[in-house]
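Human:
I keep going back and forth on a fold encoding question. Comparing notes only helps if you start from a blank page. Show me how you would write down a chain together with its backbone fold. Write it directly below this note and I will take it from there.

Assistant:
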Amino acid sequence: MFSEPRREPHSVRKRLMSNIYSKSFVQSSEQLATNSKTLLSQRFLPFLQKAAEESIAIDVHDMNNGFTMDFMSAYQFGIDVSTKFSIEPQTRKHFLHLYHQRRFYEYHKQEVPNFTRLCKLLGIPWVPKYVDKYNDEIEDWSLEMCDAANSHFEDSPNSASEPIVHKQLTLALRQQNESNVEKEDSRIPILDEATQRLHVASDMLDQLGAGHETSGICLTYLYWELSQHPNTQKQLRDELLGLSPQILWPSQPEQAFHLPRPKDIDSLPILHAVLMETLRLHAPIPGQEPRITPSTPTTLAGYTDIPPNVRVSAQAYSLHRNPEVYPDPEEWKFERWMKPADSEELKEMTRWFWAFGSGGRMCIGSNLAMQGEQAVENTCQ
């Protein structure tokens, strides 16, 4: 889905999964609630407690990447098939090494794909051989999780094991195939079983990569900003302690560990404001997000009659630093997001806010990302 440049195929694929990423779905999901409780109480908080008791320094970016990968993979594949990066540091470090080393060369395939293919054909080392090796290992890993999740389609022992995203996409593609065969619709290709398996694995890997990395970056910057603003940290802690039930750790033996309702967490104004301001100033994807102009001439940013199939782009870094919309744009000021809901200033800031993109290409997992980040920040205070 992410790499599809054409509007219609992208829209068709996105619609197959959009319902399970909607705000109402993720806030009411029993699977997500159960797994969030498990991940926080059995992995994340014990890890922090051990580090505190033994005075162990923590690489918080590494820690956040591990937890957000566990969170994303548990939602996609179910808790039984998900990663255990929070409690398996060597596995986490190995994967993150593969993932980040190959990222240095994403530009080559994205921006100069024909030249990259030509260099490979001629044996010119434009991209190191280890990049393909690392990509193959990561893709095989994704396929293994997809195949393992198949067994939980019908016989999930409990809601936590249900592979929500993988199941939704797999069954939807099967149904789409059957429908296309009946209608003989040539616009959408009919996939054989082997190709469909690869399509599902590709989408699952895209969502794992995008979901864990962006949330991990946001949380890391959020911790840093709060460390620089102790008064804001106290305000946030006081707000979070007003939730019911309170998250207190270590939990008392006579008290079971429970999380507040996602809707209650989502309604907290200071928590919402510090997340929005962190995403504004430190957008996890600050660079260009390319789009292709539609089949009819279009107008963008004052430029008229832009022909079809032209690659255009905007970037969150620049949009979020417009001083007319965000006064003192280089300063982290969470208060700017606490204006009245009907204020024109807030409406304009929201219109320019592009941490998740906008329109048909807007990040499909934005609601899940916000809920996961809210849950982590709630427990850290």
